[in-house]
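Structure (tokenized):
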């Protein structure tokens, strides 16, 4: 089975790489891959589904730049190495890193493959469930993009071949989120049990019941994302998510099962975890836990699961204001990541039962749902600890330590939202993009103030990523209109749902 997945993944990722283009609408190759009817016609949609799922977490390019350097660096999960500290922790701009997710998704073929699968399978009964799965992947993909950039090409994205649209408009984030709920409704209604599971699905092996739970989980995430700016719609969608059925244990977690295949060339085609590739690129012994995360973990069993004791037998973190070589008395005293976290075969957690429980805890406390916030909070913490067993085995799970720790976790009056959001921040460890997005929504936990003189923003965390500069020529009119909305494409401007 692993060999089959490896062959499928390499084939589809190879196809995506061949079709990689710049954003320039005048480029002959761009027009060819968006108009040539032979481009995808011979590719089985189930094979494309495999490649899309693998690319969502196997892409070394964006995982290193957007997820690790900026995501994990911004929100102080990790620090110390030159790129994570210099660009992430200190908030220094780099076009290469700011544009990474955009280029890999729009220019690298992920969006076009998604659109192609949706168009080819639309209305065909034999592909009913596969089409529904692709709709879920569409929401997952575009949510990451819009949460990072704001208004983006959405309704017209990837339609060069099908509708001759070479200059897609930038849809407003509000309209995009409204459509997310519509797309999830469609996926929910069309996913049905099948005697023969859908082929090519690396997440749930074609299990329609699992996918329906995933749809509800994604609906819940989208609802909480807009809960400050549109609480009425958020509440409506939360109730629908619960009614349709959410995750009930870690067995429902959505994650990519990567294998240990090495890349043919650095950062190119591989089936391995892209975050692992990024950590190895930085040097796995050079990215360390920050003092922020170690302090907030306290006696949390995840401290042992994630990090190694230093030579003195203690956990020691890097101040986010410092490079590793600034650490005194020596960088050799800094704790390091557990090696199984950055193996090529390390799984990538897209969505977890822990996140679901913690979002319900927040919704319940805010009055958006009538649940027991404390119960959801404890369940979210426990699941967030136990979910890491998939990175090695059950030997890293200490049941007694978990029970002792959970006994101390009671929501503190007046600090409920901070404590819930802090646990959300922890459960997103190594998913820097999602952690960064959720932090902008909640403004918790309290992070160490960046006072480094070299900070590119005077210590102010950026609130979005700027659009790629190439868009100013390849899609000029739409780019200018969208940029004006964000203070001339500033990364200190806020996206629609980011309100105080």
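Design, position by position:
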């Amino acid at each position: 089975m692993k060999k089959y997945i490896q062959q499928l993944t390499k084939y589809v990722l190879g196809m995506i790489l061949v079709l990689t283009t710049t954003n320039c609408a005048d480029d002959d190759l761009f027009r060819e891959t968006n108009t040539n009817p032979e481009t995808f016609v011979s590719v089985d949609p189930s094979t494309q589904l495999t490649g899309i799922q693998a690319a969502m977490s196997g892409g070394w390019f964006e995982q290193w730049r957007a997820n690790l350097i900026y995501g994990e660096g911004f929100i102080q999960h990790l620090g110390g190495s030159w790129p994570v500290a210099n660009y992430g922790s200190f908030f220094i701009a780099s076009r290469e890193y700011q544009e990474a997710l955009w280029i890999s998704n729009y220019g690298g073929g992920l969006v076009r493959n998604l659109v192609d699968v949706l168009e080819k399978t639309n209305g065909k009964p034999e592909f009913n469930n596969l089409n529904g799965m692709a709709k879920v992947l569409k929401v997952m993909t575009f949510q990451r993009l819009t949460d990072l950039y704001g208004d983006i090409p959405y309704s017209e994205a990837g339609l060069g071949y099908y509708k001759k649209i070479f200059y897609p408009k930038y849809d407003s984030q509000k309209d995009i989120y409204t459509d997310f709920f519509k797309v999830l409704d469609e996926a929910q209604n069309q996913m049905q049990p099948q005697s023969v599971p859908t082929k090519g699905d690396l997440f749930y092996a074609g299990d329609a019941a699992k996918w329906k739970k995933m749809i509800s989980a994604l609906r819940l995430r989208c609802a909480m994302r807009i809960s400050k700016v549109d609480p009425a719609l958020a509440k409506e969608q939360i109730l629908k998510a619960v009614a349709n059925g959410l995750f009930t244990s870690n067995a429902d977690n959505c994650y990519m099962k990567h294998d240990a295949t090495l890349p043919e060339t650095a950062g190119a085609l591989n089936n391995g975890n892209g975050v692992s590739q990024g950590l190895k690129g930085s040097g796995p012994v050079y990215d360390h836990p920050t003092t922020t995360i170690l302090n907030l973990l306290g006696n949390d069993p995840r401290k042992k699961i994630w990090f190694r004791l230093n030579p003195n037998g203690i956990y020691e973190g890097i101040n986010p204001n410092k490079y590793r070589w600034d650490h005194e008395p020596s960088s050799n005293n800094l704790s390091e990541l557990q090696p199984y976290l950055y193996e090529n075969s390390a799984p990538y957690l897209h969505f977890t039962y822990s996140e679901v429980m913690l979002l319900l805890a927040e919704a319940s406390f805010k009055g958006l749902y009538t649940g027991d916030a404390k119960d959801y909070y404890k369940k979210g913490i426990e699941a967030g600890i136990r979910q890491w067993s998939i990175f090695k085995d059950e030997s890293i799970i200490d049941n007694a330590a978990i029970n002792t720790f959970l006994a101390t976790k009671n929501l503190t009056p007046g600090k409920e939202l901070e404590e819930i959001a802090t646990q959300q921040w922890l459960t997103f460890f190594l998913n820097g993009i999602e952690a960064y997005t959720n932090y902008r929504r909640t403004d918790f936990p309290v992070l160490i103030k960046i006072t480094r003189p070299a900070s590119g923003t005077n210590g102010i965390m950026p609130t979005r990523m700027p659009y790629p500069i190439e868009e100013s020529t390849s899609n000029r009119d739409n780019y200018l209109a969208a940029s004006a909305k964000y203070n001339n494409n500033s990364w200190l401007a806020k996206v629609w749902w980011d309100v105080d």
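Reviewer-requested clarification: The beta strands are 78-79, 152-153, 170-171, 254-256, 288-289, 348-351. The chain is about 50% helix and 5% strand.
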